[in-house]
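Box 3.1 A note on notation
Throughout this textbook, protein chains are presented in two layers. The first layer is the amino acid sequence; the second is a token string describing backbone geometry. Keep the layers aligned when reading.
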Amino acid sequence: MKTHFLLLCIACLLGGSCGNRGQGYVIEGTLPSVKYDGEWIYLVPMENAQGRVDSVKISNASFSFSGQGEEMRVLRLRHALRPYIQELLVVTEPGIIQVTTDSIGSVTSTPQNDALQQWKEGREKKQVSYRFIRQGLQTATGEDSLYLAQRQDSLKVQEQEMNYFFLKEQGDNTLGMFMQKMLRGSLTEEQRKQLDESLQ
């Protein structure tokens, strides 16, 4: 019995394939300008953050983090710079994660981060449409007002569907469970029921 356990341990060390325990994440990031060189960028857990904040100093308009443990984190600079460099959600899943920080940033190159980026871009497009409609409703009258109100209702339905399919596709992975806390309230009662059934 001890011999079999020892052989299993050796196989794990040599092959690195036992439960993917040896696989970590690497975050490779860039900034829009070297003017941020010397600043610190922080990788902060979204939950249970006490004592687990990582930080690195920016150099040559770039930065890098590495580690193990899959969870939702946020990349951010000091408070005064956040209006210029967007805070970014990132899933620290195994692999090399590419980050572009700017007024609108992106996180890509691993499955969950790609899905999050796609959802984020879809949401940003809808926010632009919402702003356009709200501005129009301030001055519109008659049929124009009715048309804009109908567009607003249609946009809300599209957003609900986008959120539902996003959550359903992610299921009970790290991203899916975290985003459920943010998006579940936006779904219809029927969508919530179907989502729960798909997760069982």
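Helices lie at 2-15, 111-139, 142-170, 174-183, 189-199. Strands lie at 25-30, 40-45, 54-57, 62-67, 72-76, 88-91, 95-100, 106-108.
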